[in-house]
């Protein structure tokens, strides 16, 4: 594994001595074999794949499963095989649905492994060999060139104009210049310019490096370890459903025990009490809950997929709706991850590039003709580079700023291929980290034309003239003025290059002296057009957006100001070097971190700490990102949102949601869907529980009052799996209220069902119970019914009352006949289907015999109709009365209202 400590801070010669290797001949094969045994293969650990058997067994661990299994066992013990088989069938359906939806392998570590699984060009025994990356060991001498992916952590011993794309590891949007000089011992990964790391890519130049770390000891390996150790938390919805289920099981056991004890104490037969106990156990548990919850979340997932948000984990749909903080990466998430030339500052004027209009404009926004000094500067920018671009709208290949210059040339009608036909390139002086410049030499009109670009301070230090339409001497004061202009562009968040040229005799040797300074070019990774509007929508929804990036503070702040994340006149930006580990933060530092809008130059471990910090403060955290460096935080967050187009496979696998269009606006649409899903889940929970509690109360009160059982266990199962499920699912398909995104996010601590919802459930259950017992008493006393005929009347009364009860789920402030329930076509379809199933259950002999039902007479049907409609009529009257008394401000039991504790968006 690790061979050295801080090799980036030591001279290359010292590192080579410590590793006992000659850079010219490399390791001997025998020595390399010993090191391979010692340090192990250069491979990343993988997370064990979850087996199908483990997922299946996980479905059998819930208290509901054991309660129903016990009920089935008791029924079988007393010879009621029909009932036992029916209960086991219910268990099979629920287990099957859970198994199918949860069967997903954890592939993030495999993706990380694939990222590092390549070949390397290694010097061994003085010969160049190509080896699988897994066989590379500490001390190996590795050769690199443009386009190579680095397969281990290397300390550079030779570097020729090396640029390295580290964006997936550090978040740095631009390729980093690399060299051999040591850096500070406390330098963060992004500043270790003497190193190249596993999983990054060489964008230009050539290099030779010595391997100092392999496998899990690399920076990529450390990130992998963070993901392995970071088991995803159970989602808030899953926690709340588990808590609610546990409460129901406890209540069921208590009620069942009390009723059975009371019955036996009053002389009821033991067999009757056992049957009543099974009926109570079956009635109390909403067997359809897992089915409906899964279907509701799946429907939300399908709707989100139509908005280009692919959900990897069903519970993530609802959790996103509870989000209070979005921690977002900058590069590739808020920005396009494509450098664009935005400004040109030439001696002839200061120009802006209007890419939308395809024109150059001056300080007064007037279009500028291409010619003179502007044309010369653009020609130098196009010639001085080795990037390739087929068309202006294509990605191309090469350095991002060179590609931006090529696109700028195309915008002005200047194409590199056409220029090279007239001015052929003779040779190139590659970029050097010491000179901070590069040049290309071209044959032009019998002379040698030198096109130069580089850092402003480097170019101005060797320029002697200013090239406009003529040439004038570049004075010291004017040089300082141009440096000041470069600083102004940098303060505006732009990356700045200087352009220069000179013409020398064809026989002269190219050099960087006596250059003619042409001007400055400012580049920016532009924000995505839709992001500003999406962030404003988040603010309106009460959701904080915090930028967490590995990029420089100046660049991050400018983008954040443009997008409205931070106030240009204030706000808090914290750099990674000033952010202590979570356990070392003082109370004041924690509060400042929680209030910050931007975190710049942060490491993967710091991103992880920030997610933990917000979660400890009671926030539900969504983390967006696209790089390897984002993967641990994506997995730790309540919701990880990865970019699908630009994102790495590692980030996509670690996330709960993947955006296929990489549009930040899709997150807003997903948040709305999540809020709607929560309200729908709350709505169908209230419906299911009021129905199930009414079944418990009906059985319990009938037993205590000495009445015959009004509904049998198998009939309860029929209701819970058939007539309850379809209306509940219809409720789960609601499109939601129009103002759902104009409300603040609910308190993450708010339960699925609070006091208003439980009062509604209790009231609804009481109405259903009274109507059912009323039909039972009337059927027995007035209609003279007994046995199956009497049970049929009470069963159908409860069944139809539960069907009509779906209309009581409208908001108390909504209209009676025009509301989201009556406008939902699925509700009407569910009612029709359930009514048809009930009729079939009564008149189809095989099913009627199994359920112990007998066809009612006309008077029986009239009694069923009258008593079943009573809860609906009374419920609607009470809701209308409440609306009138409260002037439309009656506490809405279905709305997602905050219960306090949510911090306002700054």
State the domain count.
5
CATH topology of the largest domain: Calcium-transporting ATPase, transmembrane domain
Main sheet: strands, sense, barrel: 10 strands, mixed
Rg (CA only): 36 Å
Instruction: Just give the CATH class of the largest domain.
Output: Mainly Alpha
Kindly report how far apart the N and C termini lie: 46 Å
The strand count comes to 25
pLDDT average, as an integer? 81
Provide the helix percentage.
40-55%
CATH architecture of the largest domain: Up-down Bundle
Name given to the CATH homologous superfamily of the largest domain:
Calcium-transporting ATPase, transmembrane domain
Brief rundown of the structure:
By secondary structure, the protein is of the alpha+beta class. Helices cover 47% and strands 16% of the residues. The chain has 5 domains: 7-47 and 110-227, Calcium-transporting ATPase, cytoplasmic transduction domain A (Distorted Sandwich); 52-65 and 77-104, no CATH class; 289-302 and 675-886, Up-down Bundle (Calcium-transporting ATPase, transmembrane domain); 315-335 and 528-662, HAD superfamily/HAD-like (Rossmann fold); 340-524, 3-Layer(aba) Sandwich (Calcium-transporting ATPase, cytoplasmic domain N), CATH 3.40.1110.
Key terms for this structure?
single chain; 906 residues; alpha+beta; Calcium-transporting ATPase, cytoplasmic transduction domain A; Calcium-transporting ATPase, transmembrane domain; 5 domains; 8-stranded mixed beta sheet; 31 helices; elongated; disordered C terminus
Topology:
Blueprint: H1 12-19, H2 29-39, H3 52-58, H4 63-77, H5 81-102, H6 108-116, E1 119-124, E2 127-132, E3 141-145, E4 153-165, H7 167-170, E5 176-178, E6 195-196, E7 201-213, H8 219-229, H9 236-265, H10 270-284, H11 289-306, E8 309-311, H12 315-321, E9 325-328, E10 340-346, E11 349-354, E12 359-361, H13 372-383, H14 400-411, H15 416-422, E13 425-432, E14 437-444, E15 447-454, H16 456-462, E16 463-467, E17 471-473, H17 476-491, E18 495-505, E19 515-524, H18 531-540, E20 544-548, H19 553-563, E21 573-575, H20 587-595, E22 598-600, H21 604-616, E23 621-625, H22 631-636, E24 639-643, H23 649-654, E25 657-659, H24 664-704, H25 713-723, H26 725-732, H27 755-781, H28 787-804, H29 825-843, H30 845-851, H31 858-886
Parallel strand pairs: 9-20, 9-23, 16-19, 20-22, 21-22, 23-24, 24-25
Antiparallel strand pairs: 1-2, 1-3, 3-7, 4-5, 4-6, 4-7, 8-25, 10-11, 10-19, 11-12, 13-14, 14-15, 15-18, 16-17, 18-19
Helix pairs in contact: 3-5, 4-5, 4-10, 5-25, 9-10, 10-24, 10-25, 11-24, 11-26, 12-24, 13-14, 16-17, 18-24, 24-26, 24-27, 26-29, 27-28, 27-31, 28-29, 28-31, 29-30
